[in-house]
């Protein structure tokens, strides 16, 4: 088991438990439960100079690795704003999160707010609140970019886990965060870097698709492009790991790479056939 604490820090007479950093949001496709299976496949810190995660989401692998230098990116502007606020203003954010109420009427009031009219701190506080209290922690927007997941929690839901936000903030201090497409993020990659790609997955079937984290959707062309980038980076001397679904298309796209099966229990999948244990792929070039 991965331990929840990583140590103690002496602070005056008090002993402060330092919680193991972990994602401060729930994210579809999050890798937190798969980390034990990933661990044997990861390079040790001495084998790379910098860590890049171009499809950041909840950032489970970043928080697990705690690299000394990192570039973290995602196309979702709301999400990256949240990371920036956690990194730069954890106490102000915690203060705002504590003021939220977990009721259906309050949830729909918050959901109705237009994020761009809010301050970056209020936007982040709204985002975390909606993530914690919406159905299954999904992030889904309609064609006009408005968050449209319904209320899904009971009164006992905790919106603010202070220690998670504080340890995430400490861990993020050496990370550069940006809103960026994966193509733009990889333009910064140099030999000696380690890049972890966790894109929206190739759907197992037409109906099992859940790739709508952002509008626009992630297409087959994007999957092709990503596989070509992974090959190009391999030639440059970059360590690459890609996660994706166990489908024929993914096996074909990554022929020649080392492909490992990873067992996972998916919680977020609209198709009940897709619930329960399915295999995913961990693809690597080393
Ligand atoms: C599978 S999730 C990442 C899960 C993450 N590794 C975790 O542990 O929570 C995929 C992420 O890719 C982002 N995304 C979708 N299309 C993108 C694109 N073209 N460029 C960059 N990020 C994109 C989504 O916003 C989403 O956060």
How is this structure best described in words?
The chain has 286 residues and is α/β, with parallel strands linked by helices. The chain has a single domain (5-284), classed as Vaccinia Virus protein VP39 (Rossmann fold). It contains ten helices and nine strands. The protein has helices spanning 35-38, 60-65, 77-88, 90-97, 104-112, 120-133, 162-172, 182-186, 220-236, 248-253, and strands spanning 5-11, 14-19, 50-53, 70-74, 175-179, 193-197, 239-245, 258-266, 276-284. The strands form two sheets. A seven-stranded mixed beta sheet has the order 5-4-3-6-7-9-8, sandwiched between helices. Helix 3 crosses helix 6 and helix 3 crosses helix 7. Residues 1-5, 12-17 and 268-274 have low confidence and may be disordered. It binds S-adenosylmethionine. S-adenosylmethionine binds at residues 27, 29-31, 54-55, 57-60, 74-76, 181-182, 198-200, 213-214, 218.
């Amino acid at each position: 088991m991965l331990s929840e604490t990583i140590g103690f820090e002496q602070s005056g007479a008090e002993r402060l438990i330092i919680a193991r950093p972990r994602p401060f949001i729930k994210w579809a496709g999050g890798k937190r439960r798969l980390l034990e299976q990933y661990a044997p496949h990861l390079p040790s810190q001495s084998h790379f100079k910098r860590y890049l995660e171009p499809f950041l989401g909840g950032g489970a692998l970043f928080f697990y690795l705690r690299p000394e230098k990192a570039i973290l990116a995602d196309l979702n502007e709301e999400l990256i704003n949240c990371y920036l606020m956690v990194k730069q203003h954890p106490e102000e954010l915690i203060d705002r999160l504590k003021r939220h109420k977990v009721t259906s009427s309050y949830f729909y009031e918050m959901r109705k707010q237009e994020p761009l009219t809010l301050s970056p701190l209020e936007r982040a506080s709204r985002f975390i609140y909606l993530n914690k209290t919406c159905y299954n922690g999904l992030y889904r927007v309609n064609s006009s970019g408005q968050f449209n997941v319904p209320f899904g929690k009971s009164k006992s839901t905790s919106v603010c886990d202070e220690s998670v936000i504080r340890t995430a903030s400490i861990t993020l201090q050496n990370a550069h965060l940006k809103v960026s497409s994966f193509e733009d993020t990889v333009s910064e990659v140099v030999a000696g870097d380690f890049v972890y790609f966790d894109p929206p997955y190739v759907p197992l079937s037409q109906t099992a698709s859940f790739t709508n984290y952002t509008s626009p959707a992630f297409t087959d062309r994007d999957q092709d492009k990503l596989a070509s980038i992974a090959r190009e980076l391999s030639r440059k001397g970059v360590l690459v790991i890609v996660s994706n679904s166990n489908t024929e298309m993914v096996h074909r796209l990554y022929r020649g790479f080392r492909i490992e099966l990873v067992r996972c229990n998916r919680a977020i999948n609209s198709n009940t056939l897709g619930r329960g244990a399915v295999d995913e792929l961990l693809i690597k070039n080393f």
